[in-house]
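During the reporting period the student researcher (J.K.) took over the structure-prediction task from the postdoctoral fellow and processed the backlog of single-chain submissions. One of the processed entries is reproduced below for the supervisory committee.
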Amino acid sequence: MKSKTLFEIGGYVAAAVLVAFGIATLVMGINGRNTVNSSLTQEQIVGTPDMSPKGIAAEVSAAKAAQTKLFATLRQNGVQLTPSPINTPSCSVAGKSVDNGSRARCFARFMRIHTFGATSGLTYSQMGRYVAKPGTPVKDTDGLGGTNDTNAAATDPQTKQPVSNGRRDIWVTYTALTTALNTSYMASQLSLFAVVIGIALLLAGIGFGILAFAIFRVPAMAPKAKEAAPAPGTLQTT
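J.K. obtained the following structure tokens:
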């Protein structure tokens, strides 16, 4: 078999492989995106009326004010903590069904504002594990009545164990929910990426096949140029 024929066959095979992978990737990407959207829809999550930049503005201001006051008190008592920024989300899901990755991520951002409002701007790691006893010095607490010192913690009279900090549990719930929502967003973006790659592979395979045909077939099929007739008065020799 001539090397030209081998190269031609190889070109067609490569084109077919690219097209096949492109179709498979495209189908997987579309299926993945549909799965994410379907799973989110089943949860029946709807954004609250305040989940818009304008609707959440008052709560953001209140959370920032509470955070500023709390951290000032902590610094005055020798507790050095860095406040986490409280930013107003630029998206909106107010009254909207959370049925795709983008809305899931937006919903998670508003949940963070709600959680800051409940904790005066403290994050999970900045709050004490237990409820502090009445009269515990501020330097031994998180400023909201939580402490990590078991000796300063209030004790449950029945279990004789330190009482857990309810505010900290809010962050546990928030983290679990937002992780799931942000994972949905990531999965949605990866599915979109797969769709784009699938289209690119499909076009590359088609282009590769056309190129192989043009290189190995078109020149052979082209008609031969006619032999130019001799100019008048020119002696033609054999």
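The committee noted the following: The first helix runs from residue 3 to 42.
J.K. will present the remaining backlog at the next meeting.
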